[in-house]
Amino acid sequence: MATDKKSPVTCHVLVASLGIPGKNVGVKIEKLDQGEFSVLSTSVTNEDGRCPTLLPAGYKAEKGIYRVTFETKAFFDTINQECFYPYVQIVFELANPDQHYHIPLLLSPYSYTTYRGS
């Protein structure tokens, strides 16, 4: 159950090709409202590749369609590695505002995988 102290949506970036956390990856979360996405918050992953404060503390989650964007090219540029996807966008439906939604991103320069985590 999401609380006022923890973001109802969190994410985690793992660079699968290198076996390391994706630290300092820019992340943006948006909500679809009347056919347009509006930015709720921006953040950066921590040393462990996690973003526990993706939404502001106390944010009241609502049912709806959300989009998380990961700035992958900027990350790969910092480690001098080419990549095919300049950013990764994951669109998901938040159906139950009382639940916690965790979005892991397994990343490599030419592929990515995601799933609903716990």
Q: What do you see in this structure?
A:
The protein has one helix at 72-78; strands at residues 9-15, 20-21, 26-33, 36-44, 50-51, 64-70, 88-94, 101-108, 111-114. It is mainly β and 118 residues long. The protein has one domain: Transthyretin/hydroxyisourate hydrolase domain (Immunoglobulin-like, Sandwich), CATH 2.60.40. A hairpin with a 4-residue loop joins strand 1 and strand 2 (20-21). The longest helix is centred in the middle third of the chain and has 7 residues, at 72-78. It starts with 8 loop residues before the first strand and ends with a strand. It is an enzyme of class 3 (hydrolase). Its EC number is 3.5.2.17. One of its GO terms (molecular function) is hydroxyisourate hydrolase activity. Residues 4-117 form the Transthyretin/hydroxyisourate hydrolase domain.
How would you sum up this structure in a few lines?
This protein has 118 residues and is mainly beta. The chain has a single domain, classed as Immunoglobulin-like, CATH 2.60.40.
What is the CA-based Rg, rounded?
14 Å
Number of strands: 9
CATH topology grouping = Immunoglobulin-like
Measured between the Cα atoms of the first and last residue, the distance is 11 Å
**Uncertain parts:** none
SSE string = EEEEEEHEEE
Structural class: mainly beta
> Which architecture would the CATH scheme give at its second level?
Sandwich
- Tally of domains: 1
Average pLDDT, rounded to a whole number, is: 92
Strand content: over 45%
CATH level 1 name: Mainly Beta
